[in-house]
Specification:
With about 260 residues, the protein is α+β, with helices and mostly antiparallel strands. The chain is about 40% helix and about 20% strand.
Length: about 260
């Protein structure tokens, strides 16, 4: 075990973890984390993310605890959701694209955050309103049920174990969905690269979901955008308009009030 893993914890809590080899996040309190990182933006090594623990309660603003394999533990005033959004907004994916992939693959919500090797899923630990805790999928080696109801023990690649409030079946399903989205992203990238290489070997045809993705991405965005603008429109009408635009048909300017009227 490296000292970096436990950096930021109080000496008393570090000694407890060294003795047991386990971090019980259901019992970890803000007072157990000495290190505080100020500011409303945060730079961290996301590929070493282990856990983001939400400590907020309804009507009560509290710090968030972050645990990474390279930087240990620290507290931040940034909410867990804002941390995830900061990372996603800095990359090439967005929630709309992730949601479209999930729809095409018929995956369930809540959505995982998948950005290359960085994958994180919402857990049942400390869920309060719109605030959630997040587990770094890439940090997980194995998940086991404990003798306590709604408690799981997670063996981490770093050698430690952690305990959170959740179930083995739910975590397994959500981690599997995160890997499905990652695989889809990689397949989409490979197919796009294949089409842009003049000479290549090993051509592979895209599966149906990949072929449907781009249209679904544009169509769902158009539907949300028009409805966000205050216009009433059926899904079929938005579908037809999207198809016309993508197929370069009937590009004359239309007045939304006339075209999309209720």
């Amino acid at each position: 075990m490296t000292s970096a893993l436990l950096y930021g914890l109080t000496p008393e809590y570090q000694a407890c973890v060294v003795k047991t080899g386990e971090v019980d996040l259901t019992k970890l309190q803000l007072a157990d984390v000495e290190r505080f990182v100020p500011g409303t933006t945060l730079e961290m090594d996301w590929e070493s993310l282990i856990y983001i623990k939400n400590c907020r309660r309804t009507g009560q603003r509290l710090d968030t605890i972050v645990w990474t394999a390279k930087d240990g533990f620290f507290r931040t005033e940034i909410t867990s959701g804002s941390l995830i959004n900061q990372q996603l907004n800095a990359g090439t994916q967005n929630w709309h694209e992730l949601g479209t992939i999930a729809k095409v693959l018929e995956l369930s919500r809540p959505l995982p955050m998948v950005l290359g090797k960085t994958m994180a899923i919402k857990t049942s630990e400390n869920k309060q309103g719109n605030h959630f805790s997040w587990l770094g999928v890439h940090a997980v080696s194995n998940v086991n049920q404990t003798f306590q109801e709604n408690r799981v023990k997670i063996l981490l690649h770093c050698g430690l174990s952690m305990v959170i409030a959740d179930s083995v079946s739910r975590l397994g399903k959500k981690m599997g969905e995160a890997h499905q989205i990652l695989g889809f992203q990689q397949e989409r990238h490979a197919y796009a690269s294949q089409q842009n290489i003049p000479s290549h070997s090993g051509y592979f045809p895209p599966r149906e979901e990949l072929k449907n993705f781009n249209f679904e991405l544009y169509y769902s965005f158009a539907l949300k955008l028009i409805r966000k603008s205050g216009y009433a429109i059926t899904e079929q009408k938005a579908y037809d308009l999207t198809a016309e635009i993508l197929q370069d048909k009937n590009q004359r300017l239309r007045h939304l009030d006339d075209e999309l009227g209720t």
